[in-house]
Design brief:
289 residues, alpha/beta, Rossmann fold, 6-stranded mixed beta sheet, 3-stranded antiparallel beta sheet, 9 strands, 37% helix, 21% strand, binds adenosine-5'-triphosphate, ATP binding, transport, nucleotide-binding, NitT/TauT family transport system ATP-binding protein, ABC_transporter-like_CS
Length: 289
């Protein structure tokens, strides 16, 4: 686990270098991945020939026009769907085995909390389902409510929380079993801009503190740049990777000061250029905010 003062980028770099040196397996390994959906109406090629490795501890965002296959790729990694062709490994295992081993947590745009359970009970749900003992569950929940800054709301119900607070609970629930990988599909898509930036700051801190790798789907270029070690730019359907933009931002932590930095603007411009370099219609479904 990394120290809170160590930047996530340096953690990821150190871990990537370490894993290379030690021959450690990547968090996610995707090679020649295809996904074709077939129906009576015809077939849709959602992904074609996708190659991607995510290092342990690395934060990677997927960005691209609407319908380019971002969610499909995330769902394949999360064993919620099966590829038509290609190789997909999570920590060197099949996606199914990684799911059974609770190697990853998932958070989507809808927080998906159970309204009849309190914050604490929602967070502890995966632990309860996996028969973790009561004392250990309580200890983990109290750690997590502190991590997400909702210690005072442990006994509140979801409808007593704002959208941002609910999303933090969903993230805590995804982290409950200390996954080495988090899969996030537009988790802040439904939030207002101010809350969204606050949540981005929190997620940057949480990912640095936990050292988990993250694969993050977003439509927002600045959000992708702010959070990521690398931004994966995808083409319109059939989704392919057109460019991978490395992000190097200064400072010890990703906080609001980073958003004013020249390196941040340069990386935003690089991602935007990569998107616009793809065949039209590239702008549809991609926000510049
Ligand atoms: N279950 C399915 N059956 C048929 N087609 C599907 C299915 N799931 C996805 N698709 C198609 O695959 C393509 C990629 O969809 P996907 O949801 O992965 O795109 P996306 O990049 O996440 O889009 P958005 O940014 O709008 O959320 C789309 O054309 C979609 O219609």
């Amino acid at each position: 686990m990394s120290s809170p003062t160590e930047t996530r980028a340096s953690t990821a770099l150190r871990q990537a270098q370490g894993s290379e040196a030690a021959g450690t397996t990547p968090a996610v390994h995707v090679a020649g991945l295809d996904r074709e959906f077939r129906s009576k109406q015809g077939s849709v090629t959602a992904l074609s020939g996708v190659d991607l490795d995510v290092a342990p501890g690395e934060f990677v965002s997927l960005i691209g026009p609407s319908g380019c296959g971002k969610s499909t790729l995330l769902r394949l990694v999360g064993d919620l769907d099966q590829p038509t062709a290609g190789t997909l490994e999570v920590f060197g295992k099949s996606a199914r085995q990684a799911r059974l081993d609770q190697d990853y947590g998932i958070a989507f745009q809808q927080a998906g909390l159970l309204p009849w359970r309190t914050v604490a009970k929602n967070i502890e749900l995966p632990l309860a389902l996996h028969k973790v003992g009561k004392a250990e569950r309580a200890a983990r929940v109290s750690e997590l409510v502190e991590l997400i800054g909702l210690g005072e709301f442990a006994d509140s119900y979801p409808d007593q929380l704002s959208g941002g607070m609910q999303q933090r609970v969903a993230i805590a629930r995804a982290l409950a079993e200390r996954p080495r990988l988090l899969l996030m599909d537009e988790p802040f898509g439904a939030l207002d801009e101010m809350t969204r930036e606050r949540m981005q700051n929190e997620l940057a801190r949480i990912s640095a503190e936990t050292g988990a790798a993250v694969v993050f789907v977003t439509h927002s270029i600045p959000e992708a740049v702010f959070l990521s070690d690398r931004v994966v730019v995808m083409s319109p359907r059939p989704g392919r990777i057109v460019q991978v933009v490395p992000v190097r931002l200064p400072g010890e932590a990703r906080d609001d000061s980073v958003r004013e930095d020249r390196a941040f603007f340069d990386a935003v411009a690089a991602v935007r250029e990569a998107l616009h370099g793809a065949p039209p219609p590239v702008a549809r479904g991609v926000e510049n905010r």
